[in-house]
Amino acid sequence: MSDATDYELSMLVRALVMESNRFLEIFSAAHELHSTDMTALNLIMTARSPMTPGTLARALNLSASATTSVLDRLERAGHVSRDRSPDDRRRVELRVHAAAEALASTFFQPLAREYAAAWDSMSAEERRVVARFLTSTTSATARVRTEVLKPG
Fold it and tell me: What is the pTM of this model?
């Protein structure tokens, strides 16, 4: 690594994204999931509170009917269910089944272990720098994505 210029960092981030996409493609193909299904499953799984179909549609930038198709496929595959909220019976909440979480864990745990091994030699300060870099880069990507999606 030379001076870690903006261009070099950008290329390294792109390489990580491409490699991550390849990894996800293996999981998706093995479980007959579309890439959008995989993204939806991840969004539902990592949501801080129960996600609704409308929230998922906005997060995926899909129409209601396209989101219904995604949820139908995920439900048929046994990965998610659409349940009535215990607090508001009019509200539908998306839930990931424990079996789907276990399946994802068996696939992604080896990656987590390999990441941990790769980061093992980093000091606490280096880890803080990496965390700050990843957080700010993810936020920058989300900002640009939001701008690209704005009409007009």
Answer: 0.78
